[in-house]
């Protein structure tokens, strides 16, 4: 099977950033910040991106580019004699599937809200009403899955790469316009203070753990989502610099999302600790009371749809690439099979609020919480830990020399030998400590 290639460097950055930019930035990041102290959480999140996210992303790009394979075949090619590592490749595929098990439903919610604002049916909109309606959940989740895998039936450059470029460009423009608009709201300054001025006394082990999990979630590192795009590029650019570009773009979107939401909450005296419902209930209330709210709400949820699809497409491409390599399928056949599989597993989340009575962590928890726990709390950080050990330890894995040679190929920022202790000791220890803190704080 001939390996496809991304057409341009911009396409690679957009695709990788598209995988990172998504509901994790514009839905989850604001409500996580709202529940974890605002500015204090933002500071810890930025530190986790730099100290943990950047090294792991560079490693994922490196193993993908070196192997020229999807996660299920990376370890077969890089260390064929060390078969135990192959388990992580298969777990990476499982992680991507588990992520889509709930992410497609969230994408469907964004589409539903966009349609409701465009048609003017916003009077009865509400998070609780939406999730308690299985017809809405299933139908819009199905739309999200079908649209995503239809786009993936086209080849890489004319399908995923082209669509992602247009979506992310439109997303960035819409976000800037909305952020400027909301800066003019009365009382917006109070929202900025909560969001941007850290109260360091609010930093607790649970806040640190939440920031680390959010950093891994928003970057999609640890389950091979970045490795697949590394496998689609050449060696013209070094990978540390490309990782910096992706993280800067990803962070920009997350920060601007907060600049849209928190001034709105302050202006209309709305609760910032509403959790997953923050974006839906709070922003709907904002637009109901804003002049031209239907237009601004339509623009807001259009950028939410673009953000959601950018990640869905990227992760589903990873699933598709793995399945195609395992079964030797064409893009069209692989997309049909993977689309059906993702559709069925996503029904657990879409029906988990009403039809399927599954409460894994207490009476209020549902399938969405279960899948998020599997991915965000476990597979992402543990996958990042596995990748760091594999890239650092040559006796049991690939080793620093091989990793640095691959990462430094091409023009751009280079890894230096003095960085090795950071990658070798500090990174895995930090990941392990914060992972344990995350489990203890549940």
Question: What would the keywords be for this entry?
Answer:
442 residues, mainly alpha, 18 helices
List the helices and strands and how they pair.
Blueprint: H1 9-20, H2 23-35, H3 39-67, H4 71-78, H5 86-119, H6 127-131, H7 134-152, H8 157-183, H9 188-196, H10 205-219, H11 227-230, H12 239-267, H13 278-288, H14 293-327, H15 331-350, H16 367-392, H17 400-407, H18 420-440
Give your account of this protein's structure.
Helix content is 74%, strand content 0%. With 442 residues, it is an all-alpha fold. The chain has a single domain, classed as Amino acid/polyamine transporter I, CATH 1.20.1740.10. Helix 3 runs antiparallel to helix 12 and helix 10 packs across helix 16. The longest helix has 35 residues.
User: Main sheet?
Assistant: none
User: What's the Cα radius of gyration?
Assistant: 21 Å
CATH domain fold name: Amino acid/polyamine transporter I
CATH homologous superfamily placement: Amino acid/polyamine transporter I
Which structural class should the secondary elements be placed in? mainly alpha
> How many beta-strand elements?
0
- Helix run count: 18
Low-confidence stretches: none
| Helix content range | over 70%
Tell me what the CATH architecture is.
Up-down Bundle
> What multimeric state do the chains show?
single chain
Number of folding domains? 1
- Encode the helix/strand succession as letters: HHHHHHHHHHHHHHHHHH
- Beta-strand fraction estimate: under 5%
Mean pLDDT: 86
The CA-CA distance between the termini, in Å, is: 45 Å
**Name of the top-level CATH class:** Mainly Alpha
């Amino acid at each position: 099977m001939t390996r496809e290639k991304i057409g341009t460097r911009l396409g690679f950055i957009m695709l990788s950033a598209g995988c990172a930019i998504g509901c994790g930035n514009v839905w989850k990041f604001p409500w996580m910040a709202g529940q974890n102290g605002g500015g204090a959480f933002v500071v810890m999140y930025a530190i986790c991106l730099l100290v943990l996210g950047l090294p792991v992303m560079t490693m994922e790009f490196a193993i993908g580019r070196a192997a020229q394979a999807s996660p299920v075949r990376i370890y077969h090619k890089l260390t064929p004699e060390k078969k135990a590592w192959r388990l992580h490749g298969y777990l990476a595929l499982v992680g991507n599937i588990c992520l889509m098990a709930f992410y497609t439903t969230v994408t469907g919610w964004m589409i539903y809200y966009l349609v409701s604002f465009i048609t003017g049916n916003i009077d009865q909109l509400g998070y609780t009403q939406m999730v308690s309606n299985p017809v809405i959940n299933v139908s819009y989740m199905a739309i999200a899955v079908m649209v995503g895998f239809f786009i993936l039936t086209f080849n890489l450059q004319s399908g995923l790469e082209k669509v992602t470029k247009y979506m992310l460009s439109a997303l960035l423009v819409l976000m800037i316009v909305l952020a400027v608009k909301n800066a003019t709201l009365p009382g917006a300054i109070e929202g900025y203070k909560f969001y941007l001025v850290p109260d360091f006394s609010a930093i607790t082990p649970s806040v640190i753990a939440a920031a680390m999990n959010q950093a891994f979630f928003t970057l999609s590192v640890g389950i091979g989502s970045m490795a697949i795009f590394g496998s689609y590029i050449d060696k013209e650019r070094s990978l540390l610099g490309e990782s910096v570009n992706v993280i800067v773009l990803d962070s920009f979107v997350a920060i601007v999302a907060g600049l849209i939401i928190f001034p709105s909450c302050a202006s209309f005296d709305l609760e910032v600790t509403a959790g997953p419902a923050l974006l839906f209930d709070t922003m709907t209330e904002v637009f109901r009371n804003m002049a031209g709210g239907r237009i601004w709400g339509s623009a807001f949820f259009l950028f939410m749809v673009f953000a959601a699809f950018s990640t869905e497409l990227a992760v589903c491409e990873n699933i598709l690439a793995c399945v195609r390599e395992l079964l030797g399928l064409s893009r069209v056949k692989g997309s049909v099979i993977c689309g059906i599989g993702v559709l069925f597993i996503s029904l657990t989340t879409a029906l988990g609020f009403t039809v399927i009575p599954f409460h894994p962590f207490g009476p209020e928890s549902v399938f969405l919480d279960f899948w998020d726990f599997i991915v965000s709390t476990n597979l992402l950080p543990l996958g990042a830990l596995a990748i760091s050990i594999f890239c650092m330890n040559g006796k049991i894995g690939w080793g620093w020399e091989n990793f640095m040679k691959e990462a430094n190929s091409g023009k751009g920022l280079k890894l230096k030998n003095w960085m090795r202790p950071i990658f070798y000791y500090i990174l895995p220890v930090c990941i392990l400590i914060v992972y344990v803190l995350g489990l203890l704080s549940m």
